[in-house]
Amino acid sequence: MTIPLSRKIPMLTQFHSNLYNADWKFLKSQEKDKVVLEDFLTISHEFRGLNKSYQEVIADITKRMGHGMTVFFSRELNTQEDWNEYCHYVAGLVGIGLSKLFSASGLEATVIGQDTDLANSMGLFLQKTNIIRDYLEDIIDGRVFWPKSVWSKYTDKLEDFRALENSGQAVCCLNDLVTNALTHIPDVMEYMSRINNQSVFNFCAIPQVMAIATLERLYANGKVFQGVVKIRKGEAVRMMSEATTLDNVKAIFRHFILRIQSRVRSSDPSATRTMAAINAALECTKTEAKYDTSDYYIPLYMSVVLMVAAIAWHYLNLFSNYSY
Question: What is d(CA 306, CA 235) in angstroms, rounded to the nearest whole number?
Fold first, then answer.
């Protein structure tokens, strides 16, 4: 952190006002994304050119996020309620803001922007997945984003999960957190069922299917504590190309949920709660559509070619609906 808290906190709480300031920029950051602050004149210029309804949404979400970021400077993530609140500030508000923009644009119904609980839950599903996956990176960098009320059931020090002799307890804690993330799936399905615009649907669906695939990789996987667990690129491209309808999204979710189910062990402390979350997820993902994975994936360059072709096909069809 290169900006002292005495300066950073006022900056964050007032940051939304800079969107309306044609002259504001900040040149004293040493962070890797400092270009955003250094070239903020461009951002504020584009913002001021937006429709007023869009400006109001963006400014409001920026204000709320700025405040939220200051909350956890002096607060640890002790409880699962803290975890939910933290994820709300960094991701739930993004989901709420985007949903309000979808409605303001007329691409989606008013209810999409009004039902902030569902939009927030969508964001929490993604953020919790990222936090669980990034255990090792965060520990190395001195950050703690796993809630203490969960990890303290399995260890006295969160960093001790890195030791191989603690792998059993580490995996139990991991499964506990994955179970928490799985409880958001009914909200994800409800939200996706309300989306009508194809471009909006694709935009929302892709990160959600990536998240469930990631959770499947994470569940009961001790490698989380030794390195980075990732989805194979070929499989990621395939999911991106197929997650274009609600039934397909349900099929992808169902496929990975069933794979998690197959690895739940009765001896796991969270097993009962995990199965309850899985059963709820299976209930809301019923579909006749199918999605299967295999151990073989086409080369990445071919996957990219197919993905580009799919995107081009989509936009050619989109443009063909307009007359000039």
Answer: 12
Is 86 in the active site? yes
Task: Give the other-Cβ count within 10 Å of 57's Cβ.
Answer: 21
Q: Which amino acid is residue 237, in one-letter code? A: V
Structural contact between residues 175 and 270, judged by C-beta atoms closer than 8 angstroms: yes
Put residue 17 in one of left, alpha, beta given phi > 0 → left and psi -120 to 50 → alpha.
alpha
What is the mean pLDDT of each successive set of 10 residues along the chain, which is 324 residues long? Answer: 83 95 91 90 97 97 95 93 97 98 97 98 98 97 96 98 97 98 98 98 98 98 95 93 97 98 98 98 97 62 57 53 40
7 assigned to active site: no
Q: 203 an active-site residue? A: yes
Asked whether the beta carbons of 171 and 220 are under 8 A apart, the reply is yes
CA–CA gap between residue 290 and residue 79 (Å, rounded): 38
291 is a catalytic site residue: no
Please identify which of the residues 86, 102, 125, 219 carries the catalytic annotation.
86
C-alpha 207/C-alpha 126 separation (Å) is 7
Q: Which of 40, 125, 133, 154 is catalytic?
A: 133
* Phi and psi, residue 313, nearest 5°: -60, -40
Q: Which of 143, 263, 265, 315 is catalytic?
A: 143
Tell me how far apart the alpha carbons of residues 179 and 177 are, in angstroms, rounded to a whole number. 5
Which amino acid appears at position 124 of this protein?
A: L
Q: pTM (2 decimals)? A: 0.89
Distances in whole angstroms, Cα of residue 90 to Cα of each of 61, 71, 85, 87: 11, 11, 9, 5
7, 203, 265, 315: the active-site residue: 203
How far apart are the C-alpha atoms of 120 and 189, rounded to whole Å?
13
Q: How far apart are CA 251 and CA 45, in angstroms?
A: 43
